[in-house]
Design goal:
Helix content: 55-70%
Distance between the termini: 22 Å
Shape: elongated
Strand order of the largest sheet: 4-5-6-7-8-10-9
Number of helices: 14
CATH superfamily of the largest domain: Gcn5-related N-acetyltransferase (GNAT)
CATH topology of the largest domain: Aminopeptidase
Largest sheet: 7 strands, mixed
């Protein structure tokens, strides 16, 4: 979801100079940096892979600064192996990167010491206790499905728990052939102790991280979870003012999202870079503003409100990340622009978009915009139909 003007596109494209070339080079660097971060996340994927690895991701919670560096080295090694080699070699390199991160992460959270957090329990046993603590009682079949372990192995662990007085068993009232397991008071005390130790371990790993490092780490964990599972979408988001580095994210994500979803070429990313640079250099704080939407500490969307003339505002560069759509972020960003434009004293607001951006168009219609005109053009490597929309404030 975005907007530009054909006139600005034509003018800025013709006026591209060494400054624009420098901006393009910077943008390319941002794309490379984003790729390295993505590859680093791929390296970290191993931490979530496998039965014990997935549990470690839940109980360990995070890795330290050295963990990120090791994941990056593994990912960088994989990337080097991809260049100039066949698909088989690329697959081997990816597998090696994931396995390398597996070895690193299991060492970071102490799994190689045999017992979880130096307690009498293995990681699998600790995970089972955690799952049992999430509800008053659990059927054995449901527990086996949740943790995904061998039935015989589960039976032996439950027998030990019962012997230690951690659980009680009874027949299901609905089906006498099924067993229902529940934690005893002693079992809940054990779980509380494990939770406290796990939280303390995680705090220790996060303690020395700067805010930006912590956001990167949590973002990578979110990518791992959403990539390898069908996890539910995040439940909340916040809107905030841009911070240092956010404008580079706006440029990079506009270029990447529109290339992937609509096949737009790099000329669009170059144009966004010039629009963002003009905003940063010439912004009037009383009449212009930008917002970043954030989900789980990661940027998820953006929008700009800029001056068109003394009485008219322009909505620009509305974008919502594909993984964050469906949360109402796009509509909230537009509402925030309308609120700001009214407070700034504008009486009208306009925007430019293309008919292929159906989701954005629906938001504009729902928030009171009407179509003024449209015409065909060829931009960003595609044949498009541009549309101008506006509304009174």
């Amino acid at each position: 979801m975005s907007e530009l003007t054909v006139e600005e596109w034509s003018r800025t494209n013709m006026q591209a100079s060494s400054t624009a070339a420098g901006g393009a080079a910077d943008t390319a660097g941002q794309r490379g940096s984003a790729k390295a971060q993505h590859d680093s996340a791929a390296g970290r994927d191993g931490g979530a892979a496998g039965q014990d690895g997935g549990a470690a991701g839940r109980d360990g919670g995070a890795v330290g600064r050295d963990g990120g560096a090791a994941g990056q080295r593994s990912a960088a090694s994989a990337v080097g192996g991809l260049e100039g080699r066949g698909e088989g070699a690329a697959e081997d390199a990816a597998v090696a990167a994931v396995r390398g991160f597996n070895r690193f992460y299991t060492n970071v959270i102490g799994l190689l010491r045999g017992k979880y957090l130096d307690t009498p329990y293995s990681l699998t046993e600790a995970r089972l206790l955690f799952e049992l603590a999430q509800r008053d009682s659990s059927e054995v079949t449901d527990l086996r499905r949740t943790v995904d372990i061998d039935p015989g192995y589960l039976s032996r662990i439950l027998a030990r728990f019962e012997s230690d007085g951690l659980i009680g068993r009874q027949r299901s009232a609905a089906d006498g052939r099924r067993q229902v397991i529940s934690l005893t008071g002693a079992g809940r005390e054990v779980v509380a102790g494990l939770e406290a130790m796990s939280a303390e371990q995680t705090r220790g790993m996060l303690a020395d991280l700067r805010d930006d490092e912590r956001r990167r780490l949590l973002g990578a964990m979110r990518v791992i979870t959403e990539t390898l599972t069908e996890s539910p979408q995040p439940r909340g988001y916040l809107l905030r003012a841009p911070r240092p580095g956010d404008m580079g994210w706006v440029v990079q994500r506009n270029g990447a999202v529109y290339a992937e979803e609509f096949g737009w070429d790099s000329s669009y990313e170059a144009l966004v870079a010039r629009i963002v640079a003009d905003y940063v250099e010439n912004r009037d704080p009383d009449a212009e503003a930008a917002w970043i939407a954030e989900v789980d500490g990661a940027p998820a969307g953006c929008v700009f409100c800029v001056r068109e003339d003394d009485t008219t505002a322009r909505l620009r560069l509305l974008l919502v990340e594909p993984w964050a759509r469906g949360l109402g972020i796009g509509a909230r960003l537009v509402d925030e622009v309308l609120r700001f434009a009214r407070q700034a004293g504008y009486s009208r607001i306009t925007l430019w978009t293309n008919d292929v951006l159906a989701d954005a168009r629906r938001i504009y219609q729902r928030t009171g915009f009407t179509l003024d005109n449209e015409h065909q053009h060829h931009s960003f490597g595609q044949d498009l139909t541009s549309q101008n929309w506006s509304r009174d404030l």
